[in-house]
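Hi all, posting the design record for the shared folder.

TITLE: backbone redesign
STEP: 1 of 1
STRUCTURE INPUT:
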């Protein structure tokens, strides 16, 4: 089962590769209680604040809640799991309502694992 999850993650990373740096962009989320959740943009690879301005404070031990949040942020991927990864310094954390976005903190990150159900167009 772990091998299957790893293969799915590698397939996602291969599909979403930054053209500027050729680094794989992996779907990730991070949480900080009192701040709006962050996620990695699958095009730019940058950390972004949740556009709803209210999602925040997911319990890092509640894997089902993390997977649900992954599904919300990455609806084009069929998320089945979330794996805790390294802590990462993230800037741009916002207060509720996506205001006062000047906060920076090193927070645990979670890799969202699933299957891509998107269409790849080549010319």
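Okay, here is what came back for every position:
SEQUENCE:
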């Amino acid at each position: 089962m772990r091998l299957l999850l790893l293969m799915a993650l590698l397939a996602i990373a291969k599909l979403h590769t930054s053209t500027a740096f050729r680094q794989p962009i992996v779907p990730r989320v991070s949480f900080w209680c009192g701040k709006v959740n962050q996620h990695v943009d699958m095009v730019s690879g940058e950390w972004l604040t949740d556009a709803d301005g209210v999602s925040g404070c997911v319990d890092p031990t509640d894997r089902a809640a993390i997977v649900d949040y992954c599904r919300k942020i990455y609806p084009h991927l069929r998320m089945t799991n979330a794996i805790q990864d390294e802590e990462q310094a993230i800037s741009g954390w916002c207060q509720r309502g996506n205001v006062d976005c000047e906060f920076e903190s090193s927070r645990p990150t979670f890799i969202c694992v699933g299957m891509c159900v998107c269409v790849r167009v080549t010319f």
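COMMENT: The two ends are 35 Å apart (CA to CA).
Let me know if anyone wants the other runs.
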